[in-house]
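[job 0412] stage=complex_fold ligand=zinc ion status=START
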Amino acid sequence: MNSFEKTEEREHQSSSFDNPIREDAFLKSDDEKMSIIEKHMEGILETLGMDLKDDSLKGTPRRVAKMYVKETFGGLNPSREPALNTFNNTYKYGEMLVEKNIVVYSTCEHHLMPIIGRAHIAYLSKDKVIGLSKMNRIVDFYAKRPQVQERLTRQITSAMQNALGTDDVAVLIDAKHLCVNARGIRDIDSSTVTAEYGGKFKNDEALKASFLTYTQLKTDFED
Ligand SMILES: [Zn+2]
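[job 0412] stage=complex_fold status=DONE, emitting structure tokens
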């Protein structure tokens, strides 16, 4: 199978874990969206009985609208997708590379409460290598959507596979869902772990195990 066919196949697969957005999702500009969301936020706060003439509260609807469109849910907009430049693997590094402890700030799509955690990404270098900070950017882009952790894990894996032209990618996310930790059952200690293993990671238990060992390494720069 050549690389083009492979990409086609991946894009086809990816549709099964796209975020459920409508086709008209980007017909409105960011400014239009912010104005509409601002009005809705006013309605919510007013319904709750808040006095929006209060000095501390009066800017809140606008602030929340801006935060939703530009930051918290900014990753819905494909125009913000990071360019994933890769380099030729001229130094022929052929082992696993692990980028661990990437910060995850996302939002649970069922409660719109924060998901906070860490992502660990591994890949087996083949022809291409990717700039390290690009992995943080991938995580950040897909995290800035209303999400479920399983989908986020798969989207990051797929983006890495597409950028690197290899299936040999593993992604693990360990995250706290504030909808579980801070409300409802209030289980402050629980966290959710999801993993996606592609290519050689799928069936090679030793490879999987060394990835997990790498993620446990303590990197400490203090004395
Ligand atoms: Zn939730």
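The two ends are 51 Å apart (CA to CA).
[job 0412] exit 0
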